[in-house]
Amino acid sequence: MKYFSILIFISILFSSCGTFQNLGLNCGVTLSESGCKHEPHSCDPPPKLKTQKAFGEKSTLWTDKNTLKVYFLDGSTKQKNFVRKYMVGWNNLGNIKIQETSKVSDSDCRVSFKYSGSWSYVGTDNKYIGKSSPTMNYGWIYDDSDEDEVRRVVLHEFGHLVGLQHEHQHPKAGISWDSTATFEYYGQQGWSKQEVIIQVMTVASVDNTNFTKYDKKSIMHYPVPATLTTNGYFVDWNTSLSANDKKWVGTFYPYTCKIIRP
Q1: Which of 111, 209, 237, 261 has an alpha carbon 20 to 30 Å from 226's alpha carbon atom?
Q2: What is d(CA 175, CA 159) in angstroms, rounded to the nearest whole number?
Q3: pLDDT tens, position by position, 14-73
Q4: Angle at the Cα of 11 (from 120 to 70), degrees rounded to 5?
Q5: Is residue 143 packed enough to be buried (19+ CB in 10 Å), middle (13-18) or exposed (0-12)?
Q6: Alpha carbons 196 and 175: distance in angstroms, whole number
Q7: What stretches of 19-91 adopt beta strand conformation (E)?
Q8: Which residues contact 245 (CB under 8 A, 6 or more apart)?
């Protein structure tokens, strides 16, 4: 079935995260401060809204390499330098490294700034995307973007690249969503009910994920306004890697030790 899905994918052009979810591929999205006005499936929370501990699906962790190569398909020098500055924030936390390449043929991740929203394919799902298509997009990083927002969104999207899912969907998060308020809030940003269910309210399976305990400070957590929960629970915008984000990388991408005998 997996090979059948890959063949279907090859026959269509890059269109939306929603399309690839239908093929069994994951697409992590991030909201922007102004919300998502064009392609809601391609967004992460608006820079003012954004809880669980880090976790990732077992099937999307990189097991065949420890260097992930990034190629820029487009973008100004300033835009690319923003991404270069913060994408390496995941380096040296475990046996996984993010590195720029000048050859698209060598790339594991291809970055664009041309499409709406900010999003990334998750972990090894990137392998099923054609080399001419973007696997990560920054629809609201401009030459004059706010540094804190750039750091937040770049760390978040590259968290998806190394295999992390959204923290608010952590198996142990236990967020008591007010469905009516949540649908209305995201609906104002252009999201359908199905997209809200998939990207916000669905809880990941314990059996299919690698996770530590829930972490509301995770960079992978959407902000959660108290008005969207039934018990007043809330999560602020997180703009830096939490201690648990770092721990997750070291745990699931461990360094191997070699014994050198004299």
Answers
A1: 209
A2: 22
A3: 334 443 343 344 556 665 544 333 232 233 443 332 222 344 455 689 999 999 999 999
A4: 30
A5: exposed
A6: 14
A7: 27-30, 55-57, 67-72
A8: 54, 159, 164, 215, 218, 219, 220
Of 2, 123, 1, 3, the closest CA to residue 57 belongs to 123
Domain residue extents for the chain: 13-248
Phi and psi at residue 209, in whole multiples of 5°? Answer: -125, 155
Q: Which two tokens stand for residue 62?
A: 């990189």
Residue 165 DSSP SS3:
coil
User: In the structure, how many helices (H) and strands (E) does the chain have?
Assistant: 7, 8
Contact in structure between 28 and 121 (CB atoms under 8 Å): yes
Q: What token pair was written down for 226?
A: 């108290």
d(CA 199, CA 41): 8
* Helix, strand, coil percent content, the chain, rounded in steps of 5: 35, 15, 50
Tokens for 75, please give them: 């973008």
Q: What is the pLDDT, as a whole number, of residue 261? A: 63
Which tens digits make up the pLDDT trace of 99-154?
A: 999 999 999 999 999 998 889 999 999 999 999 999 999 998 999 999 999 999 99
- Is 0.90 surpassed by the pTM of this model? no
CB 71 within 8 A of CB 57: no
Residue predicted with more confidence, 223 or 25:
223
Calpha distance 9→27 (Å, rounded): 14
CATH number of 13-248: 3.40.390.10
Q: Both tokens of residue 227?
A: 């008005």
Q: Using H for helix, E for strand and C for coil, what is the string for 243-262? A: HHHHHHHHHHCCCCCCCCCC
